[in-house]
Amino acid sequence: MSRLFGTDGVRGLANGLLTAELALQLAQAAAVVLGHDRTPDGKRPRAVVARDPRASGEFLAAAVEAGLSSSGIDVYDAGVLPTPAAAYLVADLDADFGVMLSASHNPAPDNGIKFFARGGQKLPDHVEDAIEAQLGKEPERPIGGDVGRIQRFSDAEDRYIVHLLGTLPHRLEGIKVVLDCAHGAASGCSPQVFKDAGAEVVVIGAEPDGLNINDGVGSTHLGPLKEAVVAHGADLGIAHDGDADRCLAVDHEGNEVDGDQIMAILALALKDAGKLKDNVLVATVMSNLGLKIALRNAGISIRETAVGDRYVLEEMRAGGFNLGGEQSGHVIFSDYATTGDGVLTGLQIAAQVAKTGRTLQDLATAMTKLPQLMINVKGVDKARAATDEGVAAAVAAAELELGDTGRVLLRPSGTEALVRVMVEAADMATAERICTSLAAVVKKRLGSEVAA
């Protein structure tokens, strides 16, 4: 049987894979694994529960809260909140753990359940495995005064906003910002915190109806934001995804500023302020080589990890580093958050525009993106990609040709029978030629069909 927990909790079609019954059982299992320590004074363990505005989140949250409270866990029902806000509240309220219901950037029919440990930390694999192993076993069944109680936590969003305002290095008076909230969890708090910080705010994608989350808006659909920024003469635009754990930006001319460029801007700003721990940025192998070149020239080194914000977090914790992230826009400020926070990231970017008086477009020139091409080679025996001699020889030849002006990355998919072939080079023609050639070798050696 395949593992129920994926790279970011349990995720799938609501009422398909993710039923109310499964949500209840996961909550009961988590109550045993995460809520087993009773406090010395006999108080019950406490958990924070939050969700994004998907329609299915209503019945799934009810199931989770039933599973927790029936197992003797007191519940803070925080309502609709961004994922990083839920993580923050777990720490702020000194709760034993937290539960977030969201499928992030996925369409509305999907949903997911992820757990946070004490302090708002993501769970390591072995704890998720323990929760999964507990499924099907007899749950805790306290009676009388030992059952958990459910408390509606009405000021959850306000607490999060106050926390975010406390992270600002500079207020935002004098700049105009367009926010695209993806009809998601940040539709209330993101516009409010930007206004409280002093910015003039234009808002799109902030009318969630339970079914329109990520639908043609947000960080995976930047078109509406680009148009709005230009139409309103704004200084910049900020795009969230459904649960606001990521952020992409748009400059005043409507050009995208991706996660790599955002990390370059913020790493340099922190270094200049003497606040970048050990002058290190943690990024994944998918970050553009241009980021590494630019930061190296500025005296900042990059620690590379596997793809996934959980691996970025692990490296940050291991080294005590305070800035990391992904090209997709997950940016982690460990001084202020335990996970990627799109609202926090957007505020920090806007603060640099306000503080320096430079345009976002100008700030983004901190790095020059190398042309990058990726081809998905489908139907492949991906297990042999790292050991096949013919593939290895082709990669070595490509790396020799590129030298210091580019790189090659072959990455088997974690969920599909395919290998991703990625090439960066000094110009797109070279990237296309080498990437196409390598994809053909992978096809021939491992038996597949090529699809870009």
- CATH-defined topology of the largest domain: Alpha-D-Glucose-1,6-Bisphosphate, Chain A, domain 3
Q: Which residues form runs of ≥5 with pLDDT under 50?
A: 448-452
- How much of the sequence lies in strands comes to 15-25%
The biggest beta sheet is recorded as: 7 strands, mixed
What general form does the structure show? globular
Number of helical stretches of at least 4 residues: 14
Averaging pLDDT over every residue, what do you get? Answer: 94
In percent, how helical is the residue content? Answer: 25-40%
Could you give the distance between the termini? 31 Å
Structural class: alpha/beta
CATH level-4 homologous superfamily of the largest domain:
Alpha-D-Glucose-1,6-Bisphosphate, subunit A, domain 3
Q: Would you identify the CATH architecture of the largest domain?
A: 3-Layer(aba) Sandwich
CATH first level of the largest domain: Alpha Beta
Could you tell me the radius of gyration in angstroms?
A: 23 Å
Number of domains: 3
Total number of β-strand segments?
20
GO molecular function: magnesium ion binding; phosphoglucosamine mutase activity; phosphomannomutase activity
Modified residues (Phosphoserine): 104
Enzyme class: isomerase
Organism: Arthrobacter cavernae
